[in-house]
Amino acid sequence: MRLAKFITDNTEAILAEWEAFARSLPPGQSMASPALRDDAEEMLRFVAADMESGQSDAEQAAKGRGKTLQRGKVTAADVHGRLRLTQAFDLAQMVSEFRALRASVTRLWAAQQPADSSTQTSELTRFNEAIDQILAESVHRYASDLERSRELLLAVLGHDLRNPLSSIRMSAEVLAKTALTSRQVELTDGIIRGSERMRKMIHDLLDFTRTRLGSALAVVPERCDLAEVCRSIADETRSGHPGRDLRVKSSGDCVGQWDSARMAQLVSNLFGNAVQHGHANTPVDITLVGDHPAEVILTVGNQGPTIPPAHQYSIFDPLNRRLGAGDNHTGSLGLGLYIAREIALAHGGSIKLLSSNDVGTFFEVRLPRTPAAAA
Question: Which architecture does CATH list for 151-212?
Answer without folding.
Answer: Orthogonal Bundle (1.10)
